[in-house]
Specification:
Distance between the termini of chain A: 19 Å
Strand content of chain A: 15-25%
Structural class of chain A: alpha/beta
Number of strands of chain A: 15
Oligomer: homodimer
Order of helices and strands of chain A: EEEEHEHEHEHEEEHEHEHEHEHE
Strand order of the largest sheet of chain A: 1-2-10-15-14-11-12
Helix content of chain A: 25-40%
Largest interface: A-B, 59 and 59 residues
Chain lengths: ~325, ~325
């Protein structure tokens, strides 16, 4: 791997995504992308006694399915990297316990999955681990309870709020599968905070960070705007995506139809989530579902995934703090790229 | 770097700790180790309007001092890795915003600092970054408010509870300083959970994980019990340390006086904290304070730091979940080793 700039790295032959699995909630399983997901839960409890335990079951099952697909036992897993939105990354800790593999927990809000892919691909490229499982998740009801109010209260979300995606996904990185999509380039994000304070409008908080990382990626790698079939921010939603596009344009980067957002796409056909999806599971599920399949089929050749995170907490909002944003970029190339 | 076992790595010539700084609270600044810390806050507010903002100021100052000591501007910092105990790792996010360097957030409870050293030293050894700032913190009043009850309520801690250390520390890893202690070996921990459920007794929850990682470290590296002057678990406290020693003995590893615990040592002369200290700042401050100084002076030659984390949350306790433990080991060698 070659460092090509302050934040950016280019692989000579990057690690491949050897296997992946996504478990989604009922809403996500009804939409237009349902065939790309591996398992759909019948309801938000998924047979468990709490929403949190449902989310844990979802991530655990995604991990199991991923390892099974590669025929890898837990004992042969070299490293698990992951995190989620819950306080102290509860979902991931419980999954790590069931895997009993070397584990390092990450927290980058909805950018967590991208940061796992980033670190995992570096450690594999350096030859430190043979394989690495990367995972993340979110759950509508656990996130609402923790960040806003329990869904049982029946509160009205603000019209510009995004809808937290119920999904857990894991990907196994390795060097073995030449027939699977590879990670080709990385850009590590910096925190950007332009001072927004509305926790219902995380798209506006993250858009400047997304634009900053996308601009750094194209600049440091010396790429033309048409390098990627798709540049996909994590979960900026409809408003945030407009803002990001406008920030890119201001700096002379016109991506036009080549730029879109996982949050916008995942609920594209769902009027209830008018401003799109959010949550750590959003970009995880969309990347490992539709995008991975289309990279495998040749429908997409090169995609830049830009995981975006709003690094706020309920307490930081109460204390009047503005919302720090971050975004990490991971480029993937299909088999026919 | 060479992988010597499932979880363990040995450096040929490991990265050095080029600079470090520790800011501690008033209690820590009164004790026997006070001269090893760089700055002591006069009270728990540290001139700020909330305990959380005080913790943020402490980590921000530690980072600034560390960079200043090395004469490194923020712009030349390649990577910041860190995390803390607060929900969504608030303290670290705010520090990352002030640094504006590439940032990846970690969460491993009180093992976070060890996981930052571990990842940072791997990325430097691989040549991916020239330098990496690793940081962590905890604050008695922010941790009490979040995990137990606000200190203003005057609640009585259980006699076996540990005392959260108020401290923030950061270390700059690099390859340049031959005159500074180096990181020589690593062991990445797995989650171990023997089923304890008392959140006031985190030492018992973490001791099995600490023993598991220490045993893996000695076994995979093929070391004799007298390899290190000191094997130092993070924050098991008095009871947890006894348990860890007994678990090691059961498996035939007798470390005797060569084994101790940062939590036990940091409040050794403080009757108020009878079961010792805890918190992500505990092992961070003790490692970067007394241990680093004694590695520099030659008083210590080789030390194994075993950061220990209890991966619980308030919610997991309410839901009757047992406490997953984890521990990561980082070996350091002094200049005269």
């Amino acid at each position: 791997m070659k460092r090509v700039g302050k934040q950016s790295y280019a692989f000579v032959e990057g690690p491949s995504i050897e296997a992946a699995a996504v478990v989604v909630g009922p809403k996500e399983g009804k939409g237009m992308w349902r065939d790309y997901f591996d398992r759909v839960t019948e309801d938000h409890y998924y047979g468990m006694e709490s929403f949190e335990k449902a989310e844990q079951r979802m991530m655990g099952e995604a991990a199991e399915m991923t390892l099974e697909r590669k025929g890898l036992t837990k004992e042969r897993l070299d490293l698990f990297l992951g995190g989620d939105l819950l306080n102290q990354t509860l979902t991931t800790n419980i999954t790590a316990r069931s895997l009993a593999a070397p584990f390092i927990g990450l927290y980058g809000a909805c950018s967590t999955f991208a940061s796992a892919l980033l670190l995992g691909s570096m450690l594999i490229d350096a030859g430190y681990v043979e394989n690495c499982l990367c995972g993340s998740s979110s759950h509508y009801c656990t996130a609402e309870r923790q960040f806003r109010m329990p869904v049982e209260y029946g509160g009205q979300p603000k019209p510009w709020a995004q809808w937290t995606v119920t999904a857990a996904g894991t990907a196994l990185l390795g060097r073995g599968e030449r027939s699977m999509p590879r990670i080709s380039r990385l850009t590590i994000g910096k925190v950007v905070d332009l001072g927004t304070r509305d926790p219902s409008d995380m798209g506006s908080a993250m858009a400047p960070a997304a634009a900053d990382t996308i601009l750094a990626h194209f600049r440091e790698h010396g790429l033309r705007p048409d390098e990627y079939d798709l540049v996909l921010s994590g979960d900026l939603g409809a408003f945030g995506t407009k803002m990001c596009r406008s920030l890119l344009r201001e700096q002379g980067l016109e991506l036009d139809a080549r730029y879109n957002d996982c949050g916008v796409l995942i609920f594209q056909d769902d009027e209830e989530a008018a401003n799109g999806g959010s949550g750590a599971g959003c970009s995880t599920a969309f990347t490992l579902g539709p995008i991975l399949a289309q990279l495998q089929s040749g429908q997409l050749r090169k995609v830049l995934i830009v995981g975006t995170g709003a690094l706020l907490s309920s307490l930081s909002t109460l204390q009047g703090e503005s919302i720090p944003g971050i975004a990490h970029a991971v480029a993937m190339e299909g088999v026919k790229a």
